[in-house]
Write a structure and sequence with these properties.
The protein has 486 residues and is an alpha/beta fold. The protein has three domains: 77 residues, Ubiquitin-like (UB roll) (Roll); 217 residues, NAD(P)-binding Rossmann-like Domain (Rossmann fold), CATH 3.40.50.720; 108 residues, Alpha-Beta Plaits. The protein is built from 21 helices and 15 strands. α5 packs antiparallel against α6, α7 packs antiparallel against α12 and α10 packs across α14. It starts with a helix and ends with a helix.
Amino acid sequence: MLENVAELGISIQLDGETVVAAAGETVLHVARRAGRAIPTLCHVEGLDTPDSCLLCVVEVAGTLVPSCSLKPLAGMQVATHGPRIKQARQAAMQLLLSEHQGECRAPCELACPVGWDIAEFEQMFPLQPLRAMRQAFDALALPTTLGQVCDAPCHRACRRGELDRYLDIRSTHAQLPLGDLEFAPLPQGPKVLVAGGGPTGLAAAQRLLQLGYQPIVFEREAQLGGSLRRLLSNPASLNADLQALQRLGVQWQTGLAVTGPQLVQWLGAEFAGAIVAVGASELTALRADVRLVIVANAGLHGTPIRRVALGRTAAEQLDRQLRQSERSLAPIRLRYQDLSPHERLQLLRPESTSAQPERHLSPTDEAKLCLACGCAQHSACQLNDVAAQLHVPPARIPGERRPLQRDASHPLVVLESHKCVLCQACVAVSEGELSITGRGFASRPAAAFGLPLGGALSDAAALRAAAVCPTRAFALHPGIERVVND
């Protein structure tokens, strides 16, 4: 008869390796302590939560069992990975994604070629303008110039346009006083040559600095900017952007064109790698060199913002080649599906907006019109992380879904129960102030007696719920979350 290892400390077999479980441990504890990566959403250390997500399944004697509730028994043989386990975890995640009615990224961010988190910028700007300015500069490289010449796909995607008018995002970052930014010295890493001082090369240089390199830009013309100078009636914005890049640490030499033989010589002696952003045909023979990324015909790749995106991508590609690392896991991007007119109205939140706002507002007042679309903490979402690790696409299973329900009555937190996957962690930390109400797709966390959160949930319980929620169904109000919990 098998004895309980939690009491006697008898060893078990974990993927063929002998391990000993300590008192009170579950198989999930033992496996993680032994270095096994087992995903889970419903398990929160120290809390008594149900094994509801089924992502942590392991195989014992041919049966798949949730490891977060499985107590080790002497002689137990546990497999933590394998095709059958992987398939079961992927199926469980697909169901969770279908139940999670959320939107990871704002429509404006998805429309931006560089993937700039515009909603974060807009929410941060009225509260911490210098920090918001740095966020825009770090993403766009040439923010005030792009404010003059960008074709602004974000404007066309702005959800606020469905209510009255889109936010004038481009005009906001066109007016940023970049001279107010201060830059701390960056570590001087390996040197990288960037041939071409147009928007592609400059964006590549900035991204290389962010990745820990020391880029030096070579431009054959007497001035940097390339095609941008032909688009601008006044170069003041470009000069401001260039000065900010220089203060950041980007170095350049103008009036010097890089030839193929020079590049070969310098790659072997002085530079760890190179990005060619001039479309020089004589360099095509060097494409096989892993220290080189050629952006062929860089000046012909569409609009200025797309050229900036091209430069950032080239820098990241070269970084992977030099470090011999794989591309990082791409985050999933869930979108709201098949919304009813009433649900779309909830997203627009007309109760918090003024009708027909003025067209010409200050950047601060313009930013206050943002509807805070998307998830403020998508980069910290456990659901997103685990889905990416399991390589589960965001395709939804057809059928019934959770209706959009948003309770913003509490001064600190927002509950969007359509994002909930019923892990019940919020209930466990609320000390009786929350419970699960309803059945099926109507199930959701709620305060006692169906009261709004603002009238029934203490500040302490609200903050605890937001801290443990794995899907951001419970979250701080956007303006608070983007500044405090970034």
